[in-house]
Design brief:
Layout lengths: L7 E4 L9 H10 L4 E7 L11 H8 L5 E7 L7 H7 L3 E5 L6 H10 L3 E6 L17 E5 L15 H13 L5 E5 L7 H7 L3 E4 L1 H4 L5 H12 L2
Parallel strand pairs: 1-8, 2-3, 3-4, 4-5, 5-6, 6-7, 7-8
Bound molecules: D-xylitol-5-phosphate and zinc ion.
């Protein structure tokens, strides 16, 4: 058994001003955020298109954070090498987008990165049972993927608990990450349920306060 206890904050650049991505990344580092979360969208798995590995590569030059790449794309296996070359530290693929999930997770690890699997709100945690040995992070989506600024789905709390139990059973450390509607209002509930990586876009970039203060407020709320 191996339990991850520390909570990491993963600001999602999706909610930042794309004209100033490097400023956003620097402010996150200044605020002590351990992770930087990249929402890669392809216009197919989800309706919008965001950015690809080139954005990751450019920001790699100025940020020391753990680069946490969330691929909301079909056929993610075709892109994984590009993100490894760009300097990603972890790549998360969607269970719903992977025909050969086991092989894809192995591929991510073979390239020296942490392997993550995201599950949409309708997908049960049990779907991941037979890939746990290849998984470093379970991403429980707490909204339907595709857009920032949506409301947290409270019905996901039991899934977070279940994911934590499955993660704790493994022989290696596995983070339980949550993504969607995470703010100082929802942070305590998700960490109490077992989440150890908190993705937040709107709560960090969208409320007009400084990024440093927003990260600090989220961390305080998460430790309650
Ligand atoms: C949604 C993305 C999220 C998004 C979260 O599909 O995966 O990472 O940025 O946005 P907020 O924190 O605004 O709900
Ligand atoms: Zn995300």
């Amino acid at each position: 058994m191996s339990v991850v206890n520390e909570v990491v904050i993963a600001p999602s650049l999706l909610a930042s001003d794309f004209a100033h991505l490097s400023k956003a990344a620097s402010e996150c580092a200044e605020g002590g955020a351990e992770y930087l979360h990249f929402d890669v969208m392809d216009g197919r798995f989800v309706p919008e298109i965001t950015f690809g590995s080139q954005a990751v590569s450019s920001l790699r030059r100025i940020s020391p954070a753990f680069f946490d790449v969330h691929l909301m794309i079909v056929e993610p296996e075709k892109q994984i090498k590009h993100f490894a070359d760009a300097g990603a530290n972890g790549v998360t693929v969607h269970y719903e987008a992977c025909t050969h999930l086991h092989r894809t997770l192995q591929h991510i690890r073979d390239l020296g990165m942490n392997a993550g699997v995201a599950i949409n709100p309708h997908t049960p945690v049990s779907a991941l049972e037979f890939v746990m040995e290849l998984t470093d992070l379970i991403l429980v989506m707490t909204v339907n993927p595709g857009y920032g600024g949506q409301s947290f789905i409270p019905g996901m709390l039991p899934k977070i608990r279940e994911a934590k139990i499955m993660a704790a059973r493994a022989q290696h450390p596995i983070h339980v990450e949550v993504d969607g509607g995470i703010s100082p209002h929802t942070a305590a509930a998700v960490t109490q349920a077992g989440a150890t990586a908190l993705v937040a876009g709107t709560a960090i970039f969208g409320d007009g306060r400084s990024v440093v203060d927003a990260i600090s407020d989220l961390r305080t709320a998460a430790s309650r």
